[in-house]
């Protein structure tokens, strides 16, 4: 399976729930990054809140970095599942392949 290629996806209901969890984590990271950057921007208007504003920018940057990391972990997880399925199909004691 090629990473980030949705055409190769054959996932079970349990795997679909895990996929949805990754999407929720990605969305949470997106909202937190946006919120922290907005808060940091507002704090930068006032001299007494510039340091907390800088901290908000730094934390927001970490959440922006988490977004592609979450997607990459998800894709690696899905690719590993595909590899495990291929190994199981080749195993002589494995279940027969059912196409449908």
Walk me through this protein's architecture:
Keywords: Membrane, Transmembrane, Transmembrane helix. InterPro entries: YrhK_domain (IPR025424). It comes from Brachybacterium faecium (strain ATCC 43885 / DSM 4810 / JCM 11609 / LMG 19847 / NBRC 14762 / NCIMB 9860 / 6-10). The protein has 100 residues and is mainly alpha-helical. The protein has one domain. It is built from two helices and no strands. Helix 1 runs antiparallel to helix 2. The longest helix is centred in the C-terminal third of the chain and has 41 residues.
In short:
The chain crosses the membrane at residues 21-45, 51-70. Residues 21-76 form the YrhK domain. By secondary structure, the chain is mainly alpha-helical.
Keyword list:
single chain, 100 residues, mainly alpha, transmembrane helix, transmembrane
């Amino acid at each position: 399976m090629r990473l980030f290629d949705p055409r190769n996806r054959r996932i079970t209901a349990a795997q679909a729930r895990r996929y949805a969890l990754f999407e929720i984590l990605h969305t949470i990271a997106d909202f937190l990054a946006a919120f922290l950057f907005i808060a940091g921007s507002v704090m930068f208007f006032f001299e007494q809140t510039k340091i907390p504003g800088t901290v908000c920018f730094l934390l927001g940057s970490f959440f922006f970095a988490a977004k592609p990391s979450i997607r990459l972990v998800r894709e690696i997880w899905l690719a590993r599942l595909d590899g495990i399925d291929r190994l199981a199909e080749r195993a002589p004691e494995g279940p027969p392949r059912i196409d449908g």
